[in-house]
Amino acid sequence: RKNVLIKCLNKAEEMRPSFGSLDYNVLSNFCEKLFLAADKNDRNEVITKKTLQMFFTSKIFYEILNHFKNLSTEENKKYVYAKYKTIYLKKCFDNNITPEPGSPQNEDAVSEVDKRIDDEDKEEEEQITNDKYEHYEENNNDYYKGREKLGTQSKGTEDSVDFNLSLKHAQYAVNALIFEDRDTAKRELKLSLSYLE
């Protein structure tokens, strides 16, 4: 699996110069279509694991879109709702509970997910602000080796798949590609995949 993704990444790098400027509206439209398809399944009571995957994928693509441009109010609502439905449906399937279709009866549930997202963003901003970059500048590649070691240690202590850490490192890989740093992108992608095994 990893080799296939690495080959795709290399092929994408080769193809990238042939593309013109990026139109993020295409990605935005894709996110919306995926979200609406998942929402249609949900509201028509066709709630399967495929519906869960569609909401989850929609959430991921909205997060990727957010790296390139600020989400509009409508896009942010869809992102928060997709994140809520992903969590809700996963809990239902894990506990053999029949999920309720449509919006939650308790609107506070979505607000709670939105609040948690804001809290996570604030914590991440504080962590970035408090980081000491001198260590990074002195050791260059040791920084990434240390992160890989941390990733392997935490992977060993957890038995379950960690989607959040996987997504975070996948986003690091995307950011590295933006800056045309192929080695970092590969390293982050490998680390991201390690959380899914």
UniProtKB/TrEMBL annotation:
<dbReference type="GO" id="GO:0015031">
    <property type="term" value="P:protein transport"/>
</dbReference>
<feature type="domain" description="Vta1 C-terminal">
    <location>
        <begin position="168"/>
        <end position="197"/>
    </location>
</feature>
<dbReference type="GO" id="GO:0010008">
    <property type="term" value="C:endosome membrane"/>
</dbReference>
<dbReference type="InterPro" id="IPR041212">
    <property type="entry name" value="Vta1_C"/>
</dbReference>
<keyword id="KW-0472">Membrane</keyword>
<dbReference type="InterPro" id="IPR023175">
    <property type="entry name" value="Vta1/CALS_N_sf"/>
</dbReference>
<dbReference type="GO" id="GO:0032511">
    <property type="term" value="P:late endosome to vacuole transport via multivesicular body sorting pathway"/>
</dbReference>
<feature type="compositionally biased region" description="Polar residues">
    <location>
        <begin position="98"/>
        <end position="108"/>
    </location>
</feature>
<keyword id="KW-0653">Protein transport</keyword>
<protein>
    <submittedName>
        <fullName>Vacuolar protein sorting-associated protein VTA1, putative</fullName>
    </submittedName>
</protein>
<feature type="domain" description="Vta1/callose synthase N-terminal">
    <location>
        <begin position="2"/>
        <end position="94"/>
    </location>
</feature>
<feature type="region of interest" description="Disordered">
    <location>
        <begin position="98"/>
        <end position="127"/>
    </location>
</feature>
<keyword id="KW-0963">Cytoplasm</keyword>
<keyword id="KW-0813">Transport</keyword>
<dbReference type="Pfam" id="PF04652">
    <property type="entry name" value="Vta1"/>
</dbReference>
<dbReference type="GO" id="GO:0005771">
    <property type="term" value="C:multivesicular body"/>
</dbReference>
<comment type="similarity">
    <text>Belongs to the VTA1 family.</text>
</comment>
<dbReference type="Pfam" id="PF18097">
    <property type="entry name" value="Vta1_C"/>
</dbReference>
<keyword id="KW-0967">Endosome</keyword>
<dbReference type="InterPro" id="IPR044538">
    <property type="entry name" value="Vta1-like"/>
</dbReference>
<dbReference type="InterPro" id="IPR039431">
    <property type="entry name" value="Vta1/CALS_N"/>
</dbReference>
